[in-house]
Design a protein that fits this description.
Low-confidence stretches: 17-21
Strand content: 25-35%
Structural class: alpha+beta
Order of helices and strands: HEEEEEEHHE
Radius of gyration: 24 Å
Distance between the termini: 56 Å
Mean pLDDT: 77
Helix content: 25-40%
Shape: rod-shaped
Number of strands: 7
């Protein structure tokens, strides 16, 4: 039971992002059409998704995601800004986590089966089956789950 709990703890903690985002992009180097998110006084502590139209030394021209109308804002009014570095799917990560959790779950279920003669073989087979089902299920979920990578923007002041 301790091994199962320790494994579950490791599987929950390890996927957490451990690397810090130390690199920053200069705001004036943002190209037209770049996808970004910003915090401004009117956004109520929620990021506003924008598309950059142009970046000038004194202001930023942008359009909100659903519309094409552009708006201009001074850099001083933006509290925080991040630029998108693209998206990725989590198929491999999901399959790996599902494989480990499914194998452990299958082995634990196999150990609770009645009878002593084939308990070891049954535990191995249920571990393999649980791992295969868990890996397949999490791979499907990982394919459907898409993540976007954001990098901070150094705002001119």
């Amino acid at each position: 039971m301790r091994v199962a709990l320790a494994t579950a703890f490791v599987l929950i903690v390890l996927p957490a992002t451990t690397k810090g985002q130390s690199a920053r992009i200069d705001a004036l180097s943002l190209q037209a059409g770049a996808r970004a998110r910003m915090l401004a006084p009117w956004t109520d502590a929620k990021y506003e998704l924008i598309t950059v139209a142009s970046a000038r030394p004194d202001s930023l021209r942008y359009s909100l995601e659903p519309s094409l109308a552009t708006t201009s804002i001074a850099w001083q009014q933006i509290s925080k800004m991040d630029a998108s570095m693209g998206t990725h799917r989590n198929t491999g990560r999901g399959a790996g986590i599902g494989l480990l959790v499914g194998a452990i779950g299958g082995a634990v279920l196999g150990s609770n089966a009645p009878g002593n003669e084939f308990r070891g073989i049954q535990r191995i087979l249920q571990g393999i089956l649980g791992g295969a089902l868990g890996g397949l299920g999490r791979a499907v979920l990982g394919t459907a789950w898409q993540s976007e990578n954001w990098i901070p923007v150094a705002l001119p002041r």
